[in-house]
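Hi team,

Below is the intake form for L-fucose isomerase from Paenibacillus graminis. Please confirm the fields before the structure is written into the shared record.

FORM ID: S-0412
PROTEIN: L-fucose isomerase
ORGANISM: Paenibacillus graminis
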Amino acid sequence: MTTHYPKIGIRPTIDGRRRGVRESLEVQTMGMAERVAAFLQENLRYPDGSPVECVIADSTIGGVKEASAAQAKFSGANVGVSITVTPCWCYGSETMDMDAGIPHAVWGFNGTERPGAVYLAAVLSAYAQKGIPAFGIYGEDVQDSGSEEIPADVQAKLLRFAKSALAVALMKGNSYLSMGSVSMGIAGSIVNDQFFQEYLGMRNEYIDMSEFVRRFEEGIYDQEEFARALQWTKENCQIGPDNNPAHLQVSSEEKAVQLETCVKMALIGRDLMIGNPVLAELGFEEEAQGHNALAAGFQGQRQWTDHFPNGDFMETILNSSFDWNGKRAPYILATENDSLNGVTMLFNYLLTNTAQIFADVRTYWSPAAVKRVTGYELQGEAACGLLHLINSGSAALDGAGEQTRDGQPVIKPFWEITDEEVDATLKATQFRAASQEYFRGGGFSTDYLTKGGMPVTMARLNLVKGLGPVLQLAEGYTVELPEEVHRTLDERTDPTWPTTWFAPILTGSGSFSSVYDVMNNWGANHGAISYGHIGADLITLASMLRIPVSMHNVEAARIFRPRVWSLFGTESLEAADYRACQSFGPLY
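The structure came back. Fields below:
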């Protein structure tokens, strides 16, 4: 993927009237822009850990000529997000940013000396009339005209908008790489290029899985790195017990060969996504380019896995925040080429800069069922029941929960992870011989148990004929069960796969009346699980992309959408969201 990251453009707009009016506001207005830029640069980071960059217009904007000059500067500076700030009245349609292809927000200073709030209302009306949804930011409390504070509620909205808008900008122009085609009839792996193009601004790239075989046989990978990666894997990745019946187990020599293949797959999968200059040195200039993929999916089952080792090791390692080269940003790679879950993982990742858990939404365990099977009575967050999230594929190693902050388990951006946390994660994980019933070609599945007590958000994007994309999400907590209880429940399915016990937060209504209702209303077999309660950020991001949200348990006070959404109704926010998304249509 490209690392020429998009920037945030800051537009200070001003009352254009001269002879004392504009002149008296210049310092205050430009000061607002500078403080917003400093605040965002201090609090937001790009996926590589570097601070977000802001570009401020060369002058305050009092009319259409200065608005045009700002637009020209932004176009040359790769600005993908627009934030307008002002403490005063300005001429709305003359000073507004008219770029319909990027997200917009306006902060109108709440002060009584000059009517910034009046401009805010006027310009948001202009945005609505011109079909460019914009977010309105208006502090709850009146500030003194000389205040240089960004109030806490304004800070929260600036961050929510900017994080989501940067996610939109980061996706634009990049690719989703489909490695193979449709896995076992899973609809999410029927890659819909129209969705990627029109809603995300992304390209679609495709390879056949035979490309892996070609690169195996022709040596199209970094041989030196392969030797280093294999050594690291042998020293750090514990091979767990083989759960296969004796007649299906293979020799240790054959397992060693399979492990080598799995490590090569990880190298090749990464190179296919982002390229590798070493390949050019080997004479493979075309392959060195990669596919500029911000996300990808690997079909695997069954045409590959009936003959070759499965993709579990590749998917797990690439999705994690470290490998044999040390700590680094995760690569988003969906198992079974479930592109819709891959996109959901991408949403989560771009909002948090953290690795993601890909899982089946496998089983709802009611309190009664748990007690019947184990004799244990569920307690705490799990008192109303649990969802068993488990899949052989691309659950990042970070999902074990061995990273900590203030003594609590977390999943961190890679630049915050310590060497000790990497070691603890690897020690908490086993790589188990893949089930020969499912994976005739062998391979290794990741096996860990997610620590309890982490706030997480499970999300999923679905496509509906006649409607388009729909997002659903559930905030909740990971749960730690007594060891014997976990083992009893886990062994009823495949115990060689990573398990996350998840308890969604219930609201008492709709899809969140019970844990059963959450499971019963989930739109597909997979979910993407991110650290943190990021549901409000996902809702903001979805509104920018014009994707309605069908179910969520986020409090109304945290929801932040373009101001024009309220003109589609204020009583039933879910219905208004659907109408607004349908009216404005896909972003691109």
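SUMMARY LINE: The chain has a mean pLDDT of 95.

Thanks, M.
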